[in-house]
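HUMAN: Ready with one sample?

ASSISTANT:
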Amino acid sequence: MTLQSIDENNMEICRLTDYLEVVLKHKRMILFLTTGAFAASILVSLLLPVRYTADTLLVPSQLDQTLTITPPSGLSNLAGSVLGKPTPSDLYAGMLESKSVKDPVIDRFKLMELYGTKYRVDAYKKLNKTLTVEASKKSGIITLSVEDEDPKRAADIANAFTEELMNLLISLNTSGAGLGRKFLEERLVRVKSDMLKAAEALKNFSMKNKTIDMPAQTKATIEGIARLQAQLAAQEVQLATLRSYQTDSNQEVISVKSSIAGIKSQVSRMEGNDGGSSILGAGKVPVLGEEYARLMREYKIQENLFDLLMKNYEMAKMNEAKNFSAIQIIQKARTPDKKSKPERTFIVLISTVAAFLLSVFAAFVFEYLEKMPDIEKDGWKKLSRHFKSAR
């Protein structure tokens, strides 16, 4: 046989009619498998339980993003996603999937009995399969979806998740504001006592030394430093409050510590020193004026600090009295009137096409095995023996 005749034979094998011949030769097997898969997929799709999906849409309240809440609320100073930090939507989406929200839902709808689970951890797993929570990075809208065989129960569970989230946020807000109010009450008692002592000391010094003429610039400097020192003390109070329930790695704690460092730097620049005594130097005012400046500044610091703490205290009392939730409902879940699963047409179509392709592939495998040369068969037998001996 010449090389040309071999090439012609190879070309003959590769003709389209040869492929069609193989398909027609095994048409019964292909038809049987394809038809069987078609019928089986219809049966399976009909036996699959019907599922309904109910959706509810939530968004962080504008009040939550604009209202300054005295710590430990911890919800108003979250950094934005632009800096790579969690947004309020991410926070609330995470809370929706927490056990604090799931537990009341499981108990309300008796899901452990419904799912047939003995342990709550198994109920969590089954509930997780029916629950989907997504937070949009662009709009901030949270989509919560619940899937269930009962359309009404799907809607009720979705709305229950929203209700329990709002209850949790109210509880956190009121308990946090209450803790902050109690802490501020204690500090206000001490600050008020210090302010009265400073006022008495300043009054006694003024009466003893009569009137002291102090330059306007010195007075302005004293008042400026006093305001900064009061802000510094207020920030330190806030930091102490935060540390009572947060770690130093918390974003709010880091932010307050940074603010404290900035205020200290401003005080240092105004005093004209590098963190030493905050009393104005003796060369800047007379000796009596220096003592008067020290007493005046101490009084102003306590007065400004008392005012700042009182404002925060009133705000904490307001927040404690409010049943305010940081989440708003855009769309409540409604009872779905159309099933979401199973997609029977899709299941039947994919199963039928897959069965057809696999049966055609099997036809060519059978054809190849049937026409395999004896030499190649011997080679496969040897390979099989080597494989068995290696085992």
In short: The radius of gyration is 39 Å. The first helix runs from residue 3 to 13.
